[in-house]
Amino acid sequence: MQMTGHIDTSSLMSLEAYSTWRKVHQADIIAHRRMRSVQLGEHLNIQFESEMTVRYQIQEMLRIEKIFEEEGIRSEIETYAPLMPTGGNWKATVLLEYPNVDDRRMALAQLIGIEDHLYVQVGDFERVYAIADEDLDRENEEKTSAVHFCRWELAEAMCAALTAGALLTVGCDHPHYTEQTVVTGDARTSLLADL
Q1: Residue spans of alpha helices (H) in 68-143
Q2: Strands of 133-191, DSSP E
Q3: Cα dist from 66 to 30, 72, 117, 138, whole Å
Q4: Where does the source fall among the domains of life (predicted)?
Q5: Which pTM value belongs to this model?
Q6: How far apart are CA 101 and CA 128, in angstroms?
Q7: Distance between CA atoms of 89 and 126, rounded to whole angstroms?
Q8: What are the phi and psi torsion angles at 7 (to 5°)?
Q9: Nearest one of 65, 92, 90 to 76, comparing CA atoms
Q10: pLDDT (tens digit, 9 = 90+) per residue, 26-65?
């Protein structure tokens, strides 16, 4: 899978080529996604997207749906390409994970608005809160969704501070779900490469 910085129909593999590539590289993609996932507490998983994860998602949808005509391919690109970071920001799929159905129902009712309480913080700078669900509203008066799509826009000074070694904290300050963690190691290195 070749990274080009831009996803279009000409930069994707044919279904046949992808099927062959997938057999060899699927474990690498899963490891990449796992490395870019930040777990906040027991139930909140922030999966930071990259060109690789977005390309993989598009190729998977084309494979699963057996889409090979240009119009269908363009439609999948339009659906998923907005999840790719564009420099100076991070984009993520946020998952609220509750295996038990009853627990999930209760939690989603309590966690309305959680997407607006997700933040990243660079060193001593102010927290940057997520811009969430730009494609459509994913909650109602009774519950929030178990999946949200978020983006965080960082100022140039924040990007420079990260490059200079400032701490990167990811957190949630919802009244019913308060967690934070410092991002280190390979996850940090991978996220900084997006900026």
Answers
A1: 70-80, 101-110
A2: 147-153, 168-174, 177-182
A3: 22, 10, 38, 28
A4: Bacteria
A5: 0.89
A6: 32
A7: 15
A8: -105, 120
A9: 65
A10: 999 999 999 999 999 999 999 999 999 999 999 999 999 9
Closest CA to 181 of 190, 169, 167, 189: 169
| pLDDT confidence bin for 13, thresholds 50/70/90 | very high
**Tokens linked to 112:** 């309305």
Long-range contacts of 102-109 (CB under 8 A, 24+ apart): 104/146, 105/143, 107/43, 108/143, 108/144, 108/145, 108/146, 109/142, 109/143
Q: What is the mean pLDDT of the chain?
A: 93
Q: In the numeric block, which tokens belong to residue 77?
A: 């690109």
**What six digits make up the tokens of 29?**
């993609």
Report the C-alpha gap between 21 and 1 in whole angstroms. Answer: 8
Structure token digits, residue 113: 């608005």
User: How far is it, in rounded angstroms, from Cα 82 to Cα 60?
Assistant: 17
Q: What does DSSP say about strands 118-122 and 128-129: parallel, antiparallel, or unpaired?
A: antiparallel
Strand 147-153: give its sheet, edge to edge. 37-40, 44-48, 89-96, 147-153, 131-132
